[in-house]
Amino acid sequence: MNKKEIKLKIYGMSCDDCAVTIEKNLLTQNGIIDAKVSYEEKAGIATIDADIIKPEDILKNRIFSSDSKYKAIIRKE
Amino acid sequence: MEYDLIIIGWGASGFSAAIKASEISSGEMRIALIGKGNMGGTCVNVGCVPSKFLIEKSLRVNDILHERNGVSRAELFSEVMKELRETVYKSRIGKYEDVIRNYKNVDLFNGNASFLDSKSVKVENGGKTQVLKGSYIIISTGSSPSIPQFINPDYVRTSENFWNTEELPERLAIIGGGPIGLEIGQAMRRFGTEVTIFEIADEILPGYSKEVQSTARNIMENDGIKILTSTKINRIISENSKCIFFGNNKECFDEILLATGRYPNTASLNLQAAGVITDNNGFILTDNKMKTSAEGIFAAGDCVSGKLKLETLSAREGVIAVENIFGYGNEIDFSTIPWAIFTVPNIAGVGIAENEAIQRGLIFDRRVIDASNAVRNSISGNMYGFAKLLVDRNNRKIMGVEVISPEAADFIVEGVYAIRFGLTVDDIIDSTHIFPSHSEIIKIAAQAFKRDISKMSCCME
User: What CATH number is associated with residue A35?
Assistant: First the structure.
């Protein structure tokens, strides 16, 4: 396994429940091992298996789809 | 200061990027929008807006002179140019400055931007320096008119400052027979100016199809514009008037408009520090997702290496860049980007050009029909024009459209839809067009694939 932590900036959250919803959806995606989302920080960390998915594949998660109010970018540092 | 997105350049592509990013992020994305000079870039300040204003006003010169008995052409021109500058000012305030101030997530920085590294941009204004850091950066710094080294900039006007002209020139030289030269030349001719267009290539509108070149030349010459092709300017001097030396000749003018091309505003960006690669002329290389060679850095608009320099394309590229920051994976589709030259009649096109289709070895059929086949042209007195359709021989889908016709800039969108949605020549024929309309020329060109249109009645479906 090739574990990588990917930092996300997440937009469109209005409460802690939003963060939980996003976490749950991220965890359903093949290749995402762990997900932590903070409403307060408007951010999240997804731990992926880089042998299975690329970081940008996280943004294709259905929770960030065009008809969802939640959107994200990968934080580049 | 840290931002999610830094946009360098506040023209059409920078604005469309800032607004799109704000919309997608529900106004939460922290954006720095850096610019210098007037907000809005080329289009609103010195491009589409003033040129189309001048063209529209020029179309009514004779009517206005008739209505306002006693007003001279020179007085009218001065009034129009003053009104033009006011319109530009109002458009800039209303469509750019007021708009962006409604986006509280966008911070504006006025100054010169340069990269420190791929995530940091320095903004300098006077003695003040600020350093901004961004997760993503979009470069949208646009382009400027190029002035050859042997020409003293004080002797010529460009499309940047032509709009400050207050007195109607009796004699105007335009160096460069491209779209800008033709549009301004024709408009000025309607005000009564003697216009001469100098073009170094063997035809005006270099790079366009032979049909466009020859028809455009006929239109210009019929308007009384003198065209000198294959003509290299040796030097320009300013005496009592401004004189151009070419071959063994010398001709003098009241004003000279230089319209010979544009260079990208990238030289001062220190792109090497960010790892952004350009072509030999300084235009930024991107893929169709508008990604540059540097991770996290995108580019959009006139500063990008590519054939077309259009406001609409710039805005589209800004949107595509932002959408890909959000992982959408969208690509710019050049095959559906229309272009137009606002001469009278208009020249417009979309899709693949015939010479490119031949170069790429594509198998296609073509039909070119004269404007006289559309009854509306004889009604409105338009003598010049044509419609050309390129159709894929295998599936009859429309590949390219080229039109010279009144209102072509408005109805070329029919070609955009046809190419974007894979319509065939039969789909065009089966779509009823208004009779008599200028857009009907597209349908008649489509019908030419199926029958001899010279034996067709005017309303034949």
Answer: 3.30.70.100
Structurally, chain A folds into a number of domains equal to 1
Is B269 inside any structural domain? yes
In angstroms, rounded to a whole number, what is the distance separating the alpha carbons of residues B318 and B21? 10
The rounded average pLDDT for each run of 10 residues, N- to C-terminus, in chain B (461 residues) is 97 95 97 94 89 96 92 96 96 93 96 97 95 98 93 94 96 96 97 98 96 97 98 94 95 96 95 97 96 97 84 90 96 92 97 95 96 90 95 97 98 98 97 93 95 70 67
Q: Domain range for residue B215? A: 153-260
A60 to chain B, closest Cα gap in Å: 7
- Residue where a domain terminates, one of B260, B285, B310: B260
Rounded to two decimals, what is the model's pTM? 0.92
Q: Which residues of A touch B25 (CB under 8 A)?
A: 11-12, 71
In chain B, the number of structural domains is 3
Q: Which chain B residues have a beta carbon less than 8 Å from that of A26?
A: none
Q: Pick A76's closest partner by Cβ from B28, B29, B119.
A: B119
